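thread from #wetlab-drylab

HS: before we spend reagent money on co-crystallization trials with LLP, can we at least see a predicted complex? here's what I'd submit
DV: go for it
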Amino acid sequence: MLSRKDGILFIEGVSSLQLAEKFGTPLYVTSKEQLERNILAYREAFPDCEILYAVKANNNLAIMKIIAKNGFGADVFSAGELYMALLAGFPKDKILFNGNSKSDDEIEMGVSACVKFSVDSLDELKTLDKIAGKYDKMVEIAFRINPNIDPKTHPKIATGLKESKFGIQMEQAIEAYEVAMKCKNIRPVGIHFHIGSQILETLPFVEALKKIEELAIELEKIGVRLEFIDIGGGLGIDYEGKGAPTPMDLARAVLPVFEDIRARLRSKPKLWLEPGRSIVGNTTVLLTKVNAVKKGYKNFVAVDAGFNILIRPAMYNAYHRVLVANKEGEEELYTIVGPICESGDILAKDRRLPRIEKGDILVILDTGAYGFAMSSQYNGRPRCAEVLVSGEKVALIRERESFGDLIAKQRIPEWI
Ligand code: LLP
């Protein structure tokens, strides 16, 4: 999706400098072609499976619409994500409402939208049964099971360890399904797990699936008809240029094990997946302008995007490759920092880049997942715009916020 013409970086057929000029910076730029390639890679790797896009990775409506149009379902983690997923056109029978702390109102919205639920606790189950009864509906559920697997990723994004807040312990699973079987308005039809994110090996997925095998067999014995086993998301992407498993690698590792499990079951469940990052991560770059270059203890480059716009480096020590949009050539060592009033506001440390000056445009790669989605207005900075490119076409898909947006919901009491 990236190429150089006369030294200038192009995203598909569009000059990054012209984009920065026209829409301002910081600016997220997404390639429709790259998104479609990623969608196709999953389709080819998992032809008979249900693929639910994890909306939390990137909830831009235009981006979600492209994914929905390609027949994917959606994993939503809040009523807000459910609202946006329905707007984007994901069919409700392909939406799974996840979450470890759903409010009664959120459950009510999910029930009235007729989506399936991944239930995280017995308290949630009871509330769901009651609300489903009120609406006279039968709700299909899976339980989120904690398989106690180490996915060997950053501790903040490992979700299937035994100490994690997510899911029901394996030892308590059968009992939970037994309780669900007795609920009047609930039908347990699935098993769900999600072990973490940015996982760069396929083995943890296989291990988790193997751990689920006996549970699936026991569940059939107590009368559960399994329609799906959902192995979550988590496939990592190649942030550092060192390689990463592809959807096909994941399929080759996981599908034979799944087929073995299926062969032992009467109910022939389908495999479900919930990829987020590996669908949108490498579709997008962040353009940011250099406000100042300063030789201090280090060679600091101060840009207009900070952890308000891209929090991953500050939060997870995440690595994103950086390029200079408008030049190549002799390199120096730079540390790229944002405009936020915190020492942790560092986007990239000690990078070799062509000599940088004020006004240059830097390009931060692989920012389509958990980029804009985790942005904030911290330090009184409106969130930035997003554009979609395809060939030479460009469309604004999210307007830059204004100062008015900073105060839009604030009220000043008369009595102060
Ligand atoms: N399903 C569930 C239940 C999840 O919790 C997640 C991500 C996914 C699917 C999608 O996982 P993915 O394929 O994107 O790895 N903000 C962090 C990542 C947090 C992931 C949270 N859950 C980051 O920027 O690395």
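DV: Residues 113 and 231 are 24 Å apart (CA to CA).
HS: ok that's useful, forwarding to the group
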